[in-house]
Amino acid sequence: MKIRKFPLFAKILAGMVxxxxxxxxxxxxxxxxxxxxxxxxxxxxxxxxxxxIAIPLVFVSLVKGISGMKDLKKLSKLGLKTVSLYLATxxxxxxxxxxxxxxxxxxxVFSKSESEFYKQKFSTENQVTPQVEQRRPMxxxxxxxxxxxxxxxxxxxxxxxxxxxxxxxxxxxxxxxNEKTSVFVSVISATEAIVLKIIDFIMQFAPLGVxxxxxxxxxxxxxxSAMFSALGMYSITVIGCLLFLGYIFYPVFLKIITKKNxxxxxxxxxxxxxxxxxxxxxxxxxxxxxxxxxxxLGISEETASFVLPLGATINMDGTSCYQAIVVIFIAQIxxxxxxxxxxxxxxxxxxxxxxxxxxxxxxxxxxxxxVMSSVGIPVEGLALILGxxxxxxxxxxxxxxxxxxxxxxxxxxxxxx
Length: 417
Ligand code: ASP
Fold this sequence. Notes:
By secondary structure, the chain is mainly α.
């Protein structure tokens, strides 16, 4: 059988396994620098290509989706439904995280003296903690409004700004009517076709990109094994919650709401999950999420172009669940008892923090600082979990994109019924 006959996801999976095996062999034979010099750059190129295409894709498909609606009532209904579903799933994810971490108490593996030791150690070594300015809860709304179009398009973390400009453009087109805007709409359609073709090219490169990313990861995290065992309980708590969300909560609710077959759904989104897992970035995965959702989940372009880019920026259920667990875990480690009000604050702030988290690797660690400092937990504790963050980041990104496909499927299902 020729290689090109294999489905893409099988090639990506093979790339992942080969990356782990090759990374491990080269690590054990003392060839780490070969990986850094000659293999890792292919992973970087792959991620850069995906990011390159994200902003043009979001802009053209959103403008096209909205301008095709003809009816603004339909748009506001779709917007309201989408945002409510996103908030509801985030609320559930955070509550799950808080509930489980409070029951399992992974932070209790440390004795009182150990708690004191870590408190000392991490406050003197606080250069390990990400240096960020204090974030305020409303910041993400203020930052959503761009002051310069080119600056907004110049940084992928400004995806919400691009969404805002695209929505304004789409709404303006609908209000102006067909006659005045048809030329612009044709240009947008043609651009979209070109962008989708480029995504096809990039995805052909995915198996190699994923191979390089995973080989690089093996090398990067070879020194942190001691931390792995100390934080085992914490990792199990995070992984358990994430697996529950991704593989039980969404599929079962999708079945209940839309009668969609669970196995068909999981099969359709599996390639998206693989890419999210290997890139750790929902923004980088977005172009493929949009393409695959339309092709394999039967989601219309109208729904996909609105719901998915918005989801990739504001709906991060894996991230919000994880952030709640981190905050409470660190409080447990330092022996800090949280009051009921503090729990409610953690709940609300983590939802806000996850909305403001960019869809890039490790982004939520930075946002967790805002939650921790608002609740009064020493942010230095974050240094404790940084060493094992990457594998958890990979898994929470899987849940983040799965949550987006779930909401898109529900919105689409409701439209059809
Ligand atoms: N890596 C995550 C994502 O892109 C964000 C995070 O939780 O750090 O969805």
